[in-house]
Amino acid sequence: MTNSPANASPLTAGHDAIPGDLHLAVAHLRTTRRRRLGLVLGGCGAALAALGTLGLMLGDSTIAPGTALLAAFGAGDGGDLFVVQQLRLPRVLAAILVGAMFGLAGALFQSTLRNPLASPDILGIAAGASLGAVSGLLAFGLAGIAVAVSAFGGGLAVALAIWFLAWRRGLHSIRFVLVGVGFAYLCQAFMTWLLARADEREAASALLWTVGSVADIRGEDLGILAAGAAVLVLGVMAVARTQGPLALGDDNARALGVRVDAARVTTLLLAVGLVALATSFAGPVAFVALVAPAIARRVLSDGGPALLASTAVGALLTLTADLIGNHHVFGVTAPVGIVTGLVGAPYLLWLLATNERKERR
Amino acid sequence: MTPRPEPAEVRTDHGTTSAAPVGTTPGTASAPGTGSAPTDAASATGTTPPPATGPAAGTASAPGTADAAGPTLRAESVVLGYDGRTVIDGLDLHLPAGRITAIVGPNACGKSTLLRGMARLHPLSGGSVLLGDRDVSTMSRRELARAVGMLPQSSIAPDGVRVAELVARGRYPHQGWFGRHSSDDDAVVASALAATGVADLADRPVQDLSGGQRQRVWIAMVLAQQTDIVLLDEPTTFLDVRHQLDLLDLLTSLNRERGTTVAMVLHELNLAARYADHLVVMSAGRIVAEGDPGEVLTSDVVRGAFDLESDVVPDPVSGTPMVVPRGRFHTADRATRPA
């Protein structure tokens, strides 16, 4: 590269070259990256607006786009206004909100643990949150925000269990993922047991927590979900900056002044909180937390944690999947979690197939 | 930010003694607020003529002049270990300011652990590490990261990260809680890219680079941290000999032109002896010899530290000591083999 003779140091040569050009070039690169993020977020926003409008229009009765949008903002006549305000708008908003939460949580898990497989789905944290919600509903008769708290407890319990069994032996090890998979199965088994011994009506409503659906989140529930998400996002904003240095390795992050353990624990608590809150209302919407950050990172390809983009992509994925599941696109009606599962599972297989190659850096 | 005067008395063999560049460093100088008390102290010494300039000073290292240069980092009776197993038990090490220190020693002698302990990457079980007269354990990590840079052995370049982006992460300790990169940060990043000779790679993904280029990028990141002290844990490992020399030349340039205090763990004895102003030889968690390489690196020291017979001859290029190891085979003249 630098074939400079021994007495002309690259340092001196470099300093001569610095002033305007390189400074501008570096600034330009930074602007380019930011513009790219803007494009991705803008694209996702536009797609969300378009698909959201579609979600307001479609259903048992089709409503014209203009009427649907007006109805969404509270204008229009009785029938359409009721359908849009009470049924379709909450569902669209819930899909966006839940998807965004799973997307952000997945990005946080994956970046802070430096492992693309470390998503709450794979690690059983989503399953733990589901189990927490189901046991709260069926065994303890909880309702409302108490279910969310119970879900958080379930997710946190699984996270702690994984910590004691696997994290200390290295964040990258396959053991880490396998222990998580084991917990996912354990939680599923408990959940099936709880459902099997519950009475039929209860079980039918609790079944939601095994697949994931945004069909019945409205009114007060939507408000609680949004408020909780807002609080957690504030917390995420406080730790977001540590994700860049953390991605370079614990030693590098410490050398750059990050309090690594504190940053990681805070990040994971916030991510578990997001997963638990979303799960307590929508059930485990499969694979969004795994896939959304992967797509976001690939689109941005800047080596960053892609928190914002993952949030947007998660919302877009979930809204798309819910529209597909709700409107007979493939001839059946299915809850959103089944559609995202169909998309996510092949990606997981691909990731597992290629992951080993990457580990041999 | 005026470069410190060359520690001439140690460099007489190199023939480049008086070649210390006296330019300012535009990149760093244009970033206001980054220069702190240490650099001011450095420029203050720059204005007064250094007391010991005579080449006659020969091999004597003069810590007195170096001390005035900036904050020194030193370990005082530190105890370091893993899981209850003590590796280092009460060790003192003083890194001379404005000099290059190389730490050598056999595998598992604790040299990396020592460096990591001094950078606060490894917890101390006893003793203290002092920056100037401050115990580093009383400083916040960010505060320490603005004074001491450290390139650890295991660094991970995230998938897809570009060179300039990675180097920009060195600005982390200088940014506020919701800090955004500013134009000043860009200037520092540009300066670090130029200084390490990777400016033309700024937009390349780090994973596409060769090992030597990648190591330069990591050093650029540490430079972007703008610290007066830079520690490196085996920076030349996995590099071929050509790139090892490139890297050590680069570090020497930084040391001479910016007055940066450099301390590194090295494996290659002869390069360590050639490039270090201050050589530290460790064995079994203790320092067995330290000082000017010309005095420190003898066949007795090598035998004591490495359990290895060797001849130490003058390096034909630099005049510094060169260790020629003896194994069981391939000795040309049996008569010269020590009994």
Describe the structure.
The complex is a heterodimer of chains A (361) and B (339). Residues 1-17 and 356-361 of chain A have low confidence and may be disordered. Among the domains of chain A are: 111-284, ABC transporter involved in vitamin B12 uptake, BtuC (Orthogonal Bundle); 285-356, no CATH class. Chain A is mainly α. Chain A is 75% helix and 0% strand. By secondary structure, chain B is α/β, with parallel strands linked by helices. Chain B contains twelve helices and twelve strands. Chain B has helices spanning 26-29, 37-47, 63-67, 111-118, 141-145, 163-168, 183-195, 211-224, 241-258, 269-275, 293-296, 299-306; strands spanning 73-82, 85-95, 100-104, 126-131, 134-135, 148-151, 229-233, 261-265, 278-283, 286-291, 310-314, 321-325. In chain B, the strands form three sheets. In chain B, strands 6-7-8-3-9-10 form a six-stranded mixed β-sheet, with helices on both faces. In chain B, strands 2-1-4-5 form a four-stranded antiparallel β-sheet, covered by helices on one side. In chain B, strands 11-12 form a two-stranded antiparallel ribbon. Chain B starts with 25 loop residues before the first helix and ends in a 14-residue tail after the last strand. Residues 1-68 of chain B have low confidence and may be disordered. At the A-B interface, helix 1 and helix 11 of A face helix 5, strand 6, helix 6, helix 7 and helix 8 of B.
